Amino acid sequence: QVRLVASGGGFVQAGGSLRLSCAASGRSFYNYHMGWFRQATEKEREFVAIISARGGSIFYADSVKGRFTISRDDAENTVFLQMNNLTPVDTAVYSCAAADPLGGTWPQRNLREYDYWGQGTQVTVSS
Question: Residue 54: left if φ>0, alpha if ψ -120 to 50, beta else—which one?
Fold first, then answer.
């Protein structure tokens, strides 16, 4: 069982930055791929980024590539999402999730490939 708690959302102007954190509790955090997803109002939840167990591989959605950076600190059981050059299109509720590497094919971008989810944190970017 892995419990995830996301934080760090807020209100920022276009061009600004935010850093999201996702703290995990439970066993074997380092054995899970960790992903970030987002859901804007009246839209489906979409994949943002994933970092592999142990951090050796990373994959981004095209929409955030070059602006967002995912990282993890296994000693602190935390995964981060550094978001730079934010635009109003990035406004959404951001959620972190954990995926068993054996439960899908890298990179896991489908919601169903994730086993545990944290609550969302709201990111609002004004123009």
Answer: left
